[in-house]
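Work Package 3 (structural annotation) set out to generate three-dimensional models for the target panel prioritized at the project kickoff. During this period the team completed the workflow that converts sequence records into discrete structure tokens, so that structures can be stored uniformly alongside our sequence database. As a representative example, we reproduce one entry of 159 residues exactly as it appears in the project archive.
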Amino acid sequence: MAAGFNKVLILGNLTRDPELRYIPSGQAVTTFTVAVNRTYVAQSGEKKEEVSFVRVVVWGRSAENCNEYLKKGSSVFVEGRLQSRSWDAPDGTKRSTIEVVAQTVQFLGRPSGSRSSGADEEKPAAANVDEAIIDDSLGASAVADKGDQSKLSEEAPPF
């Protein structure tokens, strides 16, 4: 079997406020989308810019930290791994997605124009998610460790 490597580094800005929820076991999970800009020069010599939107999933206490401190427009540096999922939609079609499961989220700055709610409020420099989790978001009683958080039921997406 060939060796594999699954590591993603993303630097960008949140497209909207993070969404926090708790799975039945009580485990926190936050999702947000990061816009990543890319500037390049086309063959015509014209400077172009494109934007990619990447969905990020954060688990545990780090999920709660992300929900508390991040807002639309916040700059973040995310380190994690790619995960693909598929499920059957209510209309019977097969759906799939690729997302980043975060291992570390570094908060780089607040959106312009935002203010801290308290003068002595501290924001964590990074949210680490290297911990064992129990993922039963879809009623599946799968136990996953930090190397395999993809044990999800194929009935529906967990979000």
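Strands lie at 8-14, 19-22, 28-41, 47-59, 75-88, 94-109, 126-128, 133-135, 142-144.
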